[in-house]
Amino acid sequence: MFNYSKYPRFIHLLFTLTILGLISACNRNEGNEIEPDTGPKDVSQLVNPVTPNGTRYQDLVFAEVKATRDVVYGQNTDQAGANVTLKMNIFEPTNDQVLNRPLVILAHGGGFTEGTKEDFDSLATSLAQSGYVAATIGYRLLAGDQANLQTGVIDAVHDMRAAVRFFTKDTQYNIDTQNIFIGGFSAGAVTALHYAYFDQANLATASPTIQNYIASAGFSGTSGHSGASETVKGVINIAGGLFRANWVDAGEPILYSIHGTADPNYTKEPEAINNPNGDFTEGSGLIHPRADVVGVTNTLKKIEGEGHGAFFECDECYAEIRAFLAKHL
Fold first, then answer.
1. Are strands 254-260 and 175-185 parallel, antiparallel or unpaired?
2. Could you identify which of 4, 194, 214, 220 might form a hypothetical disulfide with 198, taking C-beta atoms 3.0 to 4.6 angstroms apart as the criterion?
3. Residues 103, 272: Cα–Cα separation, whole Å
4. How far apart are the two ends of the chain, measured CA to CA in Å?
């Protein structure tokens, strides 16, 4: 059992809507609770009406979606030393004849302590209805009395890299390896952002904890499919952040973000100013100006006055995510 009393800043992260993805953020009606995007387990209940004469990758053009659940994509040990089998759910359009399809890999939120790959059933189904292959991954969560949040982020990145390598090595799912996108909500978005923008070029500005961990575990990790390509084209960031926004550099993956401006970590929590080496990150409000400066293609959808869970009340967000991806294929 994780000993929260040893980590006062960790308690702060879990209970004040930090970037690490509490899935109990308040919605626009104060006091009401946002439910995570769990969706029904039966994908047939999630299918939306198709758009007549719609455009593949932007509109919903497939009436049915096939979900293959609990596909093993790797394994590793968690911070308590326990073996973890890494699994994902894969969504694809039924009876699709296209042999070279873009891929979106999504990671759930939950503060790196909870959440499941089923939390993104609904968005993954929407993407598959539009012609994408979508995968929702489980990844290692914090475990043990000595669990460390910063190295936990790196563990999650390593797992996501293994998921990408699974598909770049695989021939079953007909993936266009030039069009692989990664993303997630909250902790899952933190994972995807660090995958895309934290690299050797900015290792020197990382905390000593992260530097030491990278020195032993590397950037790619050992979660599976060693040697396969890890290249991604873009990131879907839903209420996430980076430990340092200035880790975004020229020539790196394109970025689409959705973030409520009332989320305490839309920019940076006040506590982070006096604790620069703590477990805090810099959110979309700082990341996108940096992306503009260095010339990374990016779009920020600000949901004015809303909090951490704003995405779950955004009726147009699914369509706007698909439109962004389609524009850059």
1. unpaired
2. 194
3. 35
4. 44
Q: What is the rounded distance in angstroms from the CA atom of residue 286 to the CA atom of residue 303?
A: 15
Q: Give which of 313, 238, 266, 265 is closest to 26, Cα–Cα.
A: 313
User: What is 35-54 written as a DSSP string?
Assistant: PPS---SSGGGGPPPPPTTP
Query: CA 272, CA 278: separation in Å to the nearest integer?
Result: 7
What is the distance between the alpha carbons of residues 180 and 193, in angstroms, rounded to a whole number? 14
pLDDT tens digits along 240-281: 999 999 999 999 999 999 999 999 999 986 666 555 556 788
- Token duo for residue 312: 């779950």
Distance of CA 274 to the CA centre of its chain: 28
Q: What is the pLDDT of residues 277-323, one digit of tens each?
A: 567 889 999 999 999 999 999 999 999 999 999 999 999 999 999 99
Span 37-91, pLDDT tens digits: 433 334 444 556 787 679 999 999 999 999 999 999 999 999 999 999 999 999 9
CB-CB contact of 155 with 79 (8 Å): yes
Pairing, β 133-137 against β 83-93: antiparallel
Q: Is the CB of residue 71 less than 8 Å from the CB of residue 63? A: no
Distance, CA of 278 to CA of 139 (rounded, Å): 23
- Phi-psi category of 205—alpha, beta or left, where left has phi over 0 and alpha has psi -120 to 50? alpha
Q: Which domains are delineated in the chain? A: 4-25+36-327 (3.40.50.1820)
